[in-house]
Write a structure and sequence with these properties.
This protein has a domain at 29-77. The protein contains 2 helices and 3 strands. The chain has helices spanning 10-13, 63-72; strands spanning 30-39, 43-50, 56-62. It has a 3-stranded antiparallel sheet with strand order 1-2-3.
Length: 77
């Protein structure tokens, strides 16, 4: 399944879900939550959530990249 890991900052992109049980850790798999905001500098802020642990984080991208991501999101459904 396609994810948005490539647009997340390094710490979140390569991080693992925290688990209380003694199960193997899963790497985060970031999906768009649907919330977006326009910010200064022709940037777009996106809220994403991890499909494994439901952690929510914000990241930002350029307006041009955001338009390209909208086509990519069709694969995430």
């Amino acid at each position: 399944m396609a994810t948005l890991n490539h647009i997340m900052p390094g710490k979140l992109n390569e991080g693992f879900c925290e688990r209380k049980e003694k199960q193997p850790k899963n790497p985060h798999a970031w999906l768009p939550s649907g919330q977006t905001r326009a910010i200064i500098g022709d940037q777009i802020a996106l809220e994403c959530y991890c499909r494994h642990c439901n952690l929510r984080e914000w990241t930002r991208t350029s307006r041009i990249e955001f338009e390209m991501l909208q086509d990519y999101w069709k694969e995430l459904r």
